[in-house]
Amino acid sequence: MRASPTSLPDVLLIEPRVFEDARGFFFESYNRRALAEAAIDVEFVQDNHSRSNRGVLRGLHYQVEHAQGKLVRVIAGEVFDVAVDLRRSSPTFGHHVAMHLSAANRRMLFIPPGFAHGFLVISDVAEFLYKTTDYWYPAHERTLRWNDPALRIEWPMVVSPTLAPKDLAGALLEDADTYD
Fold it and tell me: Among 13, 39, 52, 83, whose CB has the most other CB atoms within 10 angstroms?
């Protein structure tokens, strides 16, 4: 398992070592010791699994209390995955990193607490798995507006995305609850 910094150094790209042959493939999608050696020494407390159709955009979500770190990956299809730094004390506050995650490329991202996270499904269907470092607390959940011009995220879409009501009502960065 190899961990590499992204354009936001605290967000890490995880590339597992894949053993592939005529029968198929095998890889470790989670190994606590290997992640700790890559400076991801956290305890995950919850696993989540979502299935979404093409054009569904989920996010940009975060919790103002009980902030969650996430280890995310795609097991079917492909998504355009985004993390936004919401730590006011960070030199990268308001910046984002975006990349394609797919079942084919087997990439994972570690997104530490203090970031908003979301993804857009760009295949017909995508199944998305993620581990979190804290539990979901609906009272503390917040949504950053996916299309805030201040974020300058270039979502790869030709039509408007399908959004949940809470995602339609997301806050602009300038009005959002953030971290110190």
Answer: 83
Task: Convert the pLDDT of each residue in 88-120 to its tens digit.
Answer: 999 999 999 999 999 999 999 999 999 999 999
For the chain, the 3-state helix, strand and coil shares in percent, each to the nearest 5, are 10, 45, 45
Among 117, 130, 137, 179, the active-site one is 130
The residue extents of the domains of the chain are: 43-175
CATH of 43-175, one of 2.60.40.10, 2.60.120.10, 2.50.20.10, 3.40.30.20: 2.60.120.10
First-to-last C-alpha distance (Å) of the chain: 32
Tell me if residue 49 is catalytic. Answer: no
d(CA 162, CA 159): 9
Percent of the chain with pLDDT over 90: 90
Q: From the candidates 61, 62, 96, 117, which is the catalytic residue?
A: 61
**CB proximity list for 163: less than 8 A, separation 6 or greater:** 56, 57, 146
pLDDT digits (tens, 9 = 90+) for 127-169: 999 999 999 999 999 999 999 999 999 999 878 999 999 999 9
